[in-house]
Amino acid sequence: MLASRTLLRTALRGVRPTPGVVTHASRTFAAAASSYDLVVVGGGPGGYVAAIKGAQLGMKTACVEVRGALGGTCLNVGCIPSKALLHSSHLFEQANHDFKKHGIKINGSVEVDLKTMMGGKDKAVRQLTGGIEYLFKKNGVDYVKGFGKVAGPHNVHVKLNAGGESDLETKNILIATGSEVTPLPTCPVDNEKGRIVDSTGALVLKTVPKSMAVIGGGVIGLEMGSVWRRLGSKVTVIEFLDRICPSLDQEVGQAFQKILAKQGIQFKLGTKVVGSTVKEDGVSLSLEPAAGGAAENFDAEVVLVAIGRRPFTRNIGLEEQGIALDKAGRVTVDAHFRTSVPSIHAIGDAIVGPMLAHKAEEEGIAAVEMMQGLAGHVNYDAVPGVIYTHPEVAAAGKTEEELKAMGVEYNKGTFPFSANSRARAVGEADGLVKILSDKTTDRILGIHIIGSNAGEMIAEGVLGMEYGASSEDIARTCHAHPTLSEAFKEACMATSSKAIHF
Amino acid sequence: MGFYAGRKSACLMSRRGFADLPEVSTIVMPALSPTMTHGTISEWTKKPGDVCEAGDVLCEIETDKAVVAFDVQDECVLAKILEEAKGREIQVGMPVALSVEDKAAYEAFVEADKAGKIATPSAEALPSPTASSTSPPAPSLPASPPPSPPTPTAHLGDFALSPAARHLLHSRHLTLSAEVHGTGKGGRLTKGDVIQAIANGQVTAQAPRQAAPASTAPPPPSTPPKAQAAALAAVPPPPPGLDPAQVRIPTIQAGPGAFSDTKNSNMRKVIARRLAESKATVPHAYETVDCEIDAVLLFRKQMQRDFEVNVSVNDFIIRSAALALRDVPEANAFWDGPKGTAVPKEDVDISVAVATPAGLITPIISGSDRRRLSEISATMKDLAGRARQGKLKPEEFQGGSFTISNLGMFGIDEFSAVINPPQAAIMAVGRGAKRVRAPPYLPNQHAGNLKPYTATVMTATLSFDRRVLDEALAAQFLQAFKSYMSRPELLLL
């Protein structure tokens, strides 16, 4: 035993695939023809990014994806198509309602050509998924089209889409299988039929429904609800809790709800769906107050079920390897994203944390870097979240409620866009910037924005938080005039001293 | 955490080979939990020279959470223990021991170590993935990031200080002590770091402060840092109009020594003593008269314009008072305390109050009744100049029989002064101000014909020693003074 181990160690001693990389003495098998350093199961934003990074770090990498296109939920039925529709519908809304106040008259009526709109969305998706395939080729990542299952600590078994099976031997396995829509038993989804749909179905409706009931007042429900409201539907959001987007800072959440209500979205909060009946021309929902009470009937042409997403981690071979899942179905991992089997890692929606594409990307890169002995790092305190309605909502760090619960003393500063020159000049004066900073050190702890470009604006704040910036630091940084960013600066001024323009 | 359920395996071992020395591996403090940053070795179960099989316990490590057995992954021989049991807290990733491959290597190691050829590894040689904030998110306190070895920030140059940190330091003319290191990214100094450094006294003042009182020595080294810090960090009162909240540092209290003590000069001490004595012992009485000085002003202008002779209104006042004192010699007297009587003086030596940076001083114009106006003017200029420089001879300001104090140039309308003992009186003169006056009553004049007029009026208040002068005499003096001031041509007589 000792002799062979010594020999193996001697053999591996000079091996350094890349500078600065420590070779762990992995001593279980000799190199095989189709063996990999890394097999990523799942080609979504977490998976494909990890695969590309792995390849860039010198690992022989393969990525297994069953969908038939890379990019996961995000590119195919999530982020990208929804943002495309949000933009198209926003332009339609502006043409219909805002143009006239800018002195633009339209002779006749502005109409929606849904087929073309969907076509544009599909084209964007196709271009992007194709782009990732190109990136795989460019970086030398093997794209395996099939359903991958963990078959051992160093083995992924793939049922190929084209037929047949394949076994991939690998040093490391990265689970990036993402998440799926959480079903609502009282309201089963049938995207084909198109009456009760989930987000995937809501992205491909053939006609604009006259009325839409959105079950779930979270990000996805509000975004899709906004799209169809702008295109002409009467949208009602049915939410179990007493407020929309419960993870938002409450002050911001309330302001957001007011704005959406002003736009015409109806809200039924504190309401649960206890039953549904699909009819020829619509759906009949049976609603009850969340605390219990008399049922009421609610009809809608289309119902969107958007109560959340859950990890996609069952029946992919994890249980057989003794890898624990928590009761939400998330894979348990350590600080290096390793499961209880050291060669099997997991990231993204499959593990704990906000279900965001960029969070999965950061984890994918960190996990792969750590596999190579580098210092991978994810700063969970500075992960932004964005809601792409109009105006957008963006947040990073802690909410006021979280700070209160933690007993942390904080300073608060807010600045409304109604006091921002640029916002007024272009007629987009809804929303505010809210900054929370530590009372003693003034370090920024939380940023919350409602504004037309909140999703872009939050980047400044996240960068500041990465550098441990105080609100005064940003207040003392020059911001161009006239821009919406000045509102960010002024909110920081309001936090550490006083705003000038409000 | 799923995997680390009790026993831990050694995670990081790096290998270094030396030419003729045995290959030595470094064993580092492992991260036994995602939140672990430091650990102590509670017990070494192996000693140098022991063969360690895979799975043997090498040592027991105490973390913030538990005592965990740290076992060997690869077979080796423990060569040297670098950190003793029950010793200091060791950061994750730092070396704790050295090991070699086998017994033979160990013999060679011992030899080499005796010869001093084994170098203790430093932390930088080892790649150490940071474990602290990479754990999947859990609610964490937003306190300062976990302590890390100070990162040199020389390469950051101007960017080592964040904008707010820079503002804090420079506004207070402070520099940070060398041992202060930043908790911002890459070792940058944040606003919080500066606030903390100030509170801990880890700052030095850049500019010498006027606060140091002359009588106390510079603070001795044993001054507690907080008091010293408080003294240094006490912000001078913000200029009027600045919101104090703009310059707040929440935790700084202004301690003792945060004000300045100006020592009283000798001059001020003497003034204080004498005036207190005067007010307490001399019975002061006051009389006021208004003088219309338009004639004086006109006369003065004419002298200036026609003869290029510059005399000030004050010179006129001095001359008028001098002649008035000649006319009412009782006012030119002093109280002889021992004798208990008023003693008149021959000479009219008028002390004229001059404001200097050191205090009020009264140079004397001797024989002022015998001096011409221009002479008075020249003497006054000379005395006042030298008074302000503190270059008067004692006889030039000690003595005098009468004092004039003029606050006209300060815009004072009227005031009363304190008598300079042993003088009998002091006259306080205000500014000449345009006032509307009623004409003097004349018999045989109809009230309806009286028309108000404007004149430049100067108010003179005489404070007199009631023991020397009575009201009637004081009135006489003031009337004489007034008549000279009203009709300057009388000064020629």
From TrEMBL, chain A:
Binds 1 FAD per subunit. Residues 383-491 form the Pyridine nucleotide-disulphide oxidoreductase dimerisation domain. Disulfide bonds join 74-79. This is Dihydrolipoyl dehydrogenase. Its cofactor is FAD. It comes from Nannochloropsis salina CCMP1776. Its EC number is 1.8.1.4. Belongs to the class-I pyridine nucleotide-disulfide oxidoreductase family. FAD binds at residues 83, 148, 177-179, 349, 355-358. The active site is at 481 (proton acceptor). One of its GO terms (biological process) is 2-oxoglutarate metabolic process. The active site is a redox-active disulfide bond. One of its GO terms (molecular function) is dihydrolipoyl dehydrogenase (NADH) activity. NAD(+) binds at residues 216-223, 239, 308. Residues 36-364 form the FAD/NAD(P)-binding domain. The keyword Nucleotide-binding applies. GO terms for cellular component: mitochondrion; oxoglutarate dehydrogenase complex. It catalyses: N(6)-[(R)-dihydrolipoyl]-L-lysyl-[protein] + NAD(+) = N(6)-[(R)-lipoyl]-L-lysyl-[protein] + NADH + H(+). Keywords: Disulfide bond, FAD, Flavoprotein, NAD, Nucleotide-binding, Oxidoreductase, Redox-active center.
Automatic annotation (TrEMBL), chain B:
Keywords: Acyltransferase, Lipoyl, Transferase. It comes from the Eukaryota. Pfam families: 2-oxoacid_dh, Biotin_lipoyl, E3_binding. PROSITE patterns: BIOTINYL_LIPOYL, PSBD. InterPro entries: 2-oxoacid_DH_actylTfrase (IPR001078), Biotin_lipoyl (IPR000089), CAT-like_dom_sf (IPR023213), E2/Pdx1 (IPR045257), E3-bd_dom_sf (IPR036625), PSBD (IPR004167), Single_hybrid_motif (IPR011053). Residues 160-198 form the Peripheral subunit-binding (PSBD) domain. Residues 122-158, 204-247 are annotated as: Disordered. One of its GO terms (cellular component) is pyruvate dehydrogenase complex. Residues 136-152 have a biased composition (Pro residues). One of its GO terms (biological process) is pyruvate decarboxylation to acetyl-CoA. This is Dihydrolipoamide acetyltransferase component of pyruvate dehydrogenase complex.
